[in-house]
Write a structure and sequence with these properties.
Layout: E1 4-7, E2 12-16, E3 20-26, E4 32-39, H1 43-47, E5 83-86, E6 96-107, E7 110-119, E8 124-133, E9 139-147, E10 153-158, E11 161-165, E12 172-177, E13 185-190, E14 194-200, E15 212-216, E16 227-232, E17 238-244, E18 250-256, E19 263-265, E20 270-272, E21 276-281, H2 284-299, E22 311-313, H3 315-318, H4 324-337, E23 341-344, H5 374-382, E24 386-391, E25 395-396, H6 401-405, E26 425-426, H7 432-449, E27 453-456, H8 473-495, E28 500-503, H9 513-516, E29 521-523, H10 530-540, E30 549-553, H11 567-574, E31 578-581, H12 590-612, E32 614-619, E33 627-632, E34 638-645, E35 667-670, E36 676-678, H13 679-685, E37 697-705
Parallel strand pairs: 22-23, 22-31, 23-24, 24-27, 27-28, 28-29, 29-30, 30-31
Antiparallel strand pairs: 1-2, 2-3, 3-4, 5-10, 6-7, 7-8, 8-9, 9-20, 9-21, 10-19, 11-18, 12-13, 12-15, 14-17, 15-16, 16-21, 17-18, 25-26, 32-33, 33-34, 34-37, 35-36, 35-37
Helix pairs in contact: 4-5, 7-8, 10-11, 11-12
Length: 707
């Protein structure tokens, strides 16, 4: 079956992925309308959906609020518009006129459809793009708008795409909410009739929500049921609106920017929306997660084939009290523990002694590093580790040489207070001179010192997002900021192909497909409490793979929660992602160092499963019982089970953990105990892990297929 096929007689387009189909057509009014999204169809079967529209039952109804490929503001449309424009004469409606189409292969294994339209009267063109891949069920969508006239056009709303779901008796919405240090808390709620809006008005992806949603008919489980999902590849403010209509249909639309934002489109100018990626599965939430992980690894990450190293980060050991001596001592202990990458965090530059000064002055403090960073970098490399550095290029303290020289470089409005959060202001990366300045010192820093890794942080939301130097600056700044940010990172990586970057925004404030497409991993949360991390990591893993999720083992009592849990429990939680170490190793006892070194070595033996295997969730963190994740090799030859339990409750049920993805005809040996299990028993009847007695019990079970 062709990947993209067309029936000229009915105007039906059919896009096929390995297991799903997506069908649409241009209807009698010239508007692109949705037909089907779900299990595989033939072109002839897809044409069965191309029925004439039903007449309006009354003069109050108008066009159905969901069902258009990109609902516009105009005519008898009363649903949430994906596209709203204002022309120079004040007209706000848009009327579709099809002008052509293109089908091509942008890369081997990928096929793209471009549907071309223009407004029937005004000089505005729009192209709807669809891309599918031979190895993924994801459908990538985005739009390109072009002003071909001589007068300005204002985009009041320009979403990337709208998605329509079939009618069902009920619908359930899965999404994540949270706040700083409590990100990605998973919620599954019944979709109410009307509109449900998820958004970030903070100028970043945000800790409070993430631009992805999953919808099911209310009965999907981890391993069964139809699930439709979509995720936006954008690292600024965003809005997703989910609609449920009285006739039982559901749909959603999403794109960059929150309510009230506008985007000028000057004569001759073109605006491209970020990608909005959709995915359907009939294998439940678990299969949806696995499909997303495979998509991110196959089509988003810049170096998915790499195995991420075990890193050590100095923040929780030294805070801002950074100098060459304490970093050398920590580096020696980190290397002995088995770390492969040493990262020096905040406090190494300018007058930085706390949150109140120094941001923007990116040269090593001479009193702390008399000979610069070179001696420390050399020693870290001699110890066999890569060298990484914390940076926050988008920020400035008012108490800095940079701000005193360039107070106009920050986001601000004339005659308005410049709101400081964490004693800092946001540099206006939308300005080319600011972006070029950031790129310049970053590329020199990396090149002059042989830096292998950057932890790129961003520790506050945007406010006073103005650009007074441009008449239309306030309308352009939020979008231009993100594009210039992307450009700085892209240029930096082009200069230094060996450089690897971790995305961070006070933890998980900027985790999205757009940022992951140009970084190698993400800091999911500033909260390193292992008990809290189980929940945070559960929500993170719904869309984003473990290969991207940095997770640290830090000291107890935890600085945020004051909770103390055993070192082994902390390691087993962090081993579910990219393992990192973040405690003050100079205070670890010999016993803790020995246990930590053994657990680091254990992680290295199984990290190929965590970072490159498939994820199953035998039991989520739903109650006082054990929670567990499983990572399995693609060929079923190995599996890793990580299980955690906060506290046992006498008399509580202890259900077995049923494993998945194993070779059904094989037997597996527990690498630790030597016990041999049948795959049939492990999959159909389950494993009862022998968790240690007492509070904060955890276990790692590495199963290897018996030859």
């Amino acid at each position: 079956m062709p990947v993209i096929s067309f029936a000229p007689e009915t105007g039906v387009w059919l896009l096929c992925t390995p297991r799903t189909s997506y069908a649409l057509r241009i209807d009698e009014t010239g508007a692109p309308c949705h037909l089907a999204w779900g299990p595989r169809l033939t072109l002839e079967e897809a044409e069965e959906f191309a029925t004439p529209p039903a007449p309006h039952p009354s003069s109050f109804e108008g066009r159905p609020p969901v069902g258009d490929e990109l609902p516009v503001d105009g005519g008898a449309r009363y649903g949430t518009p994906s596209l709203q424009v204002r022309f120079a004469d004040g007209t706000r409606a848009f009327e579709w006129q099809a002008t052509g189409h293109r089908v091509h292969e942008p890369a081997p294994g990928s096929t793209e459809l471009a549907l071309e339209f223009r407004d029937r009267h005004y000089a505005l063109e729009i192209t709807l793009h669809y891309r599918v891949h031979d190895d993924s069920d994801a459908v990538e969508r985005w739009s390109v708008l072009r002003n071909t006239g001589e007068e300005a056009v204002t985009l009041l709303r320009a979403d990337s795409a709208a998605w329509t779901l079939p009618a069902r008796d009920d619908y359930r919405l899965s999404h994540v909410t949270g706040q700083w240090s409590a990100e990605t808390q998973l919620h599954r709620d019944r979709v109410p009739f009307g509109e449900t809006v998820l958004t970030s008005r903070r100028g970043i992806t945000s800790h409070h929500a993430n631009p992805w949603v999953m919808l099911d008919a209310g009965g999907a489980t981890e391993e069964h049921g139809q699930v439709w999902c979509a995720a936006l590849a954008w690292s600024g403010g965003w809005r997703v609106t989910v609609q449920r209509t009285p006739d039982g249909r559901a749909g959603l639309t999403g794109g960059a920017g929150h309510d009230g934002m506008t985007q000028p489109l000057a004569p001759g100018e073109e605006f491209t929306t970020p990608q909005y990626v959709g995915l359907y599965t009939d294998g439940g939430f678990g299969e949806a997660s696995r499909a997303w992980h495979a998509y991110v690894l196959g089509h988003v990450l810049p170096h998915p084939e790499e195995t991420r190293p075990v890193l050590y980060n100095s923040w929780e050991a030294t805070g801002f009290d950074v100098d060459e001596g304490n970093q050398l001592r920590l580096a020696a202990r980190a290397a002995a523990l088995g770390a492969e990458l040493y990262v020096m965090d905040d406090g190494w530059y300018g007058a930085r002694r706390g949150e109140g000064a120094g941001l923007g002055d990116w040269t090593p403090s001479p009193d702390r590093f008399p000979e610069g960073l070179a001696p420390l970098v050399r020693e870290v490399h001699r110890l066999g580790m890569g060298f990484g550095l914390w940076v926050e290029p988008e920020m400035v303290n008012p108490d800095s040489d940079l701000y005193r020289q360039h107070p106009d470089w920050v986001l601000h409005f004339p005659h308005r207070t410049r709101t400081e959060l964490r004693s800092q202001l946001v540099l206006n990366f939308a300005r080319r001179d600011v972006a070029d300045w950031a790129y310049g010192w970053l590329t020199r820093l990396v090149g002059d010192h042989g830096i292998d890794f950057l932890k790129w942080d961003m520790n506050r939301a945007l406010s006073e997002a103005g650009w007074p130097d441009r008449a239309d600056g306030t309308e352009r700044v939020r979008t231009a900021y993100v594009h210039r940010l992307y450009d700085v990172i892209d240029r930096l990586r082009a200069d230094h192909p060996g450089l690897r970057i971790e995305a961070c925004s006070g933890g998980g404030g900027r985790v999205d497909l757009g940022m992951l497409s140009r970084t190698d991993q993400a800091w999911a949360s500033d909260n390193t409490d292992a008990a809290d991390r189980v929940l945070i990591q559960h929500g993170y893993g719904q869309i984003y793979p473990a290969r991207t999720m940095a997770a640290w083992v830090t000291d107890v009592p935890n600085p945020l929660t004051a909770r103390s849990v055993p070192l082994r429990f902390r390691f087993h939680v962090a081993m579910a992602g990219v393992l990192g170490l973040g405690g003050d190793l100079t205070r670890w006892t010999d016993e803790e160092l020995a246990e930590g070194a053994a657990l680091v070595a254990e992680y290295k033996r199984v990290r190929h499963l965590v970072q490159h295997g498939t994820l199953h969730r035998p039991r989520g963190p739903v109650d006082d019982g054990p929670a567990a994740v499983q990572y399995t090799a693609a060929d079923g030859s190995e599996a890793l089970l990580l299980a955690w339990q906060r506290a046992p409750r006498h008399g509580a049920a202890h259900p077995p953990l049923r494993l998945a993805g194993l070779d059904p005809s094989a037997r597996y040996r527990d690498a630790r105990t030597g016990a041999v299990h049948s795959a049939t028993v492990l999959s159909d009847y389950g494993l009862r892990p022998e968790l240690p007695r007492g509070d904060w019990a955890s276990l790692a079970v590495h199963l290897v297929r018996v030859p």
